[in-house]
Every structure is written in structure tokens, then in C-alpha cells.
Amino acid sequence: MREKKRIRAGGRAWARAGMLLLGCTLAPAAAARDGNVFTPYGSLSLTMDDNLFRLPANLDVATVSGKSQRGDLITSTQEGVRGDRFFGRQRLSFDASLNQARYRTYDYLNADLVNASGTWAWQFGNDLHGEVGSEYLQMLTGFADIRSAERNITDTRNDRVTIDYSLHPAVHLVGGLYQTVQDNSAASRKGGDFTTQSVDAGASFMPSSGNHVTLRARKTRAEYPVIQPFFGVPVSNNFDESALGAEGLWQISGKSQLSGLLAYTRRHYGDLSQRDYNGPTGNIYWGYQASGKTTLSLAAKREIGAYFDVTNNYILTDSVTFTSTYQATAKTQLQTRLDHRTRSFLGDPGFILSNAPRRVDRTNSVGLTLNYDVAWPLRVTASLQRELRASNTPGFDYADSSATLALQLTW
Questions:
Q1: What own/partner pairs with CB < 8 Å and gap ≥ 24 does 85-90 have?
Q2: Is 141 helix (H, G, I), strand (E, B) or coil?
Q3: In this structure, are residues 304 and 273 in contact, taking their beta carbons and an 8 Å threshold?
Q4: DSSP codes joined into one string, 337-373
């Protein structure tokens, strides 16, 4: 009976997605007068993942999940609509979608997720413009950093208000206010709930060459409502962060460009100064048009991410990614991706006496994606990925392979 229900549910997902694809194909985007556009879109994908919980080969999956299967078949559908509306010089845009994930074996992970965003791009006169926007995201979190099969959904809201004032065609003053609120559904992950509020200000320089650079200072306050006890001592994870940096774009030649953000970041924890971080963060991207059909890119990144257990408070991630894209024909595109990440788990409060080294994970992944544009607006995508992680902490090595077949509507 359970299997029949699962089959019927999967059939309904395919039927619903098929109807959406057909309906959207027959009803083209409503490109109305004055540039107003309202567009439905959708996608359907099948993914086979052979190590869903990212477990090492020598660990019995039943000890974590209660079942013997390491992998699963996941069916995902997306149904959404996006739109733009102009009112004189003001532009309103939105995007809303329902994303459904269905697991064949571990069906307790099934989720109906909502994503939505809206933006008012405002302009007053010729010299003053900016944006007021909000974004709401739901995500089913993965299992790479924990040894638990517990289902967790994060609800994240990002709000922003930005301003850009033109002092001169080549000189702009910029600034913004930002807020992010994130909640976790699983009780064991409530320590990761947080609210951040940021303010930034700077100046942009945009010469007629098309290159530009922005000098920016940012101040952030992060608050974590759950006070974590460390051996009977209540400790707050709140922190203050400041960053001073430069971001920009340099068109090296007609075929090559360099862009990125380089900053010096200081993070201070009020309760535990042992967790403070002072150092560089940012990203650099290089793109190269090797030929009329081939593009290459190389990206390097350093960022600070959140992580909470008894001995660690945040993750410092260094990554390098190489991507190549080959446009074989007008309808066929092949993309390869190589990625290396080193993640250092830092912020040890020093409460635990241990000779164990800080956890460091090194992950290498390779991906291959084939896109085929069948006919406007339908695209078929097939992808393969292989990922290997080595950790100096026992139990966190893993190997994972996945394959995905997807139908997408792309306008």
C-alpha cells in the first residue's frame, strides 16, 4: 500500500509538471507594451544520489538512518512565475515559486518549499536611484556536516535598501541597509538561528573605459537568540563584524575580464574573544573567451560561514573553481566544472582540553553538464557529479556520485 501511494504521488508530480510545461509552451511570455513582462516557468528533474547522508564507506548507514539504503532517487518539480512592471521610471519586479522534493526511500524528507522575492528599483531625477527589496527562501539542508538523518528546513529572509547618488558621471556615492533572518525547523539546529543587520557606505569610480571600482566599508551585527551552554557556562554567539574592501571589474581585453571583492574583515565575539577572526576575505573571478564557442573561468574565494558545536563556532572556507563551457551547436552546450575547497572549523572557545587538531575538511569535486535546447522555451539538461572529501576528523570522509536529468523552461 505504501509503495502504491508513492508511485501515485510520483505519477501526479510528473503529470502536473507535464501540464505546466505544455501550458507554458503554448502561452508565451506576456511581453506587453512599455516592456511589462509576466512569465510562468517550471522544471522537472530526477536525481540519483548514491550517498544521501554523506557517510564514510566504513559506516553502516542503518546506524544513522535506520535503513540499509545509502542512496535515494529524488524527484523535484518547480512551478513559478516572474514579472516586471514599469510605472514611469519606477520598476517593480517579483519572482515566486513552489518547489517540491519527493524521496523514493527516505520519504520523511519530502518537502514543499516556497521561494519568493520582490524589488522596487526606484529613481528620482537623473542622479538618485536605488532598490528596496525582500527575498524569502526555504531550503532542505544537507547532511555533509552532521552525522544525523534529521530533517531540517531553513527559512531565510533577506531585506535590503540601497542608494546610489551620482556626483559625476564617473563618481557615485553608494550605501545600503541590510537584514537577514534565518530559522531552522529542527530542534537540534536551533542554535544556528540568527539575525544580522548591516550598513555599508562607499564610493564608486566608473571611467569611460567600462572598468569600475568601489571602495566600501561595512558594519554588521549578528544576534543568535539561543544561548548555548558550554559545560554549564552560558555563552552568547553574538558578534560584531567590520569590513573594509574594494570591489570592481577590469576589462583586460576584448576576450578577458577580471572582477572580484577583496576586504579585510574583523569579527569580534563579546563573550569569547578566543573566537575572534581578523584577516582577508573576498573573491576573485577571471573569465576568458577562448574562441567563439569556448569560454573559460577561474574563481577563488575566501569566506566565513556559521557552524555550531561544542568546539567550533565558524568555518573558514577557501575554494578554487575552474569552469569551461563549450557551445557545440546553437542548441547544444557542454560544461565542465572542477572545484577544490578547504574548510577549517575555527572558533574553539578553549573549554575542552584536547590534543586533537582542529577539524579541516578538503573536498574535491568534478561535474559534467550537457544542455540541449529542444525548442523554445524547453531545455533538457543531463549532469553527472563526483565528490570526494578527506577530513582529519574520523567519520567525516565520504565519496558521493550523483546523476540528474532535468526538463526546464527557460526564457
A1: 85/36, 86/34, 86/35, 86/36, 89/123, 90/120, 90/121, 90/122, 90/123
A2: coil
A3: no
A4: EEEEEEEEEE---S-S---PPPPEEEEEEEEEEEEEE
Q: How many CA atoms lie within 13 A of 146 on its CB side?
A: 16
CA-nearest of 356, 347, 353 to 391 is: 356
Specify whether the CB–CB gap between 269 and 275 falls below 8 A. Answer: yes
210 and 216 Cβ atoms separated by less than 8 Å: no
Helix, coil or strand: residue 11: helix
Question: Rg of the chain's alpha carbons, rounded to an integer?
Answer: 24
Q: What is the pLDDT of residues 64-97, one digit of tens each?
A: 999 999 999 999 999 999 999 999 999 999 999 9
CB 314 within 8 A of CB 265: no
Q: How far apart are CA 311 and CA 244, in angstroms?
A: 29
Task: Supply the DSSP string of 265-324, one letter for each residue.
Answer: EEEEESS-GGG-EEEEEEEEEEEEE-SSSEEEEEEEEEEEEE--SSS--EEEEEEEEEEE
β partners of residue 380: 372, 407
Please name every residue paired with 220 in a beta bridge, in sequence order, or none if there are none: 198, 241
| CA–CA separation, 54 and 60 (whole Å) | 12
Identify which of 331, 343, 340, 337 has the alpha carbon closest to the alpha carbon of residue 371. Answer: 331
Q: Are 308 and 228 in contact (CB under 8 A)?
A: yes
Q: 87: exposed, middle or buried (C-beta count within 10 Å: 0-12, 13-18, 19+)? A: exposed
- The 10s digit of each residue's pLDDT in 142-180 is 998 888 899 999 999 999 999 999 999 999 999 999 999
**Which residues, including other chains, have CB under 8 Å from residue 255's CB and lie 6 or more apart?**
288, 289, 290
Locus of grid cell 564608486? 204
CA 387, 389, 395: angle at the middle one, nearest 5? 130
Question: Rounded distance, CA 383 to CA 334, Å?
Answer: 10
- Residue 287's nearest CA partner among 261, 320, 334, 322 is 322
Give the least confident one: 26-40, 68-82, 112-126, 355-369: 26-40
Q: How confident is the model at residue 25 (pLDDT cuts 50, 70, 90)?
A: very low
pLDDT bracket for residue 349 (50, 70, 90): low
Judged against a pLDDT cut of 90, whether residue 323 lies above it is answered with yes
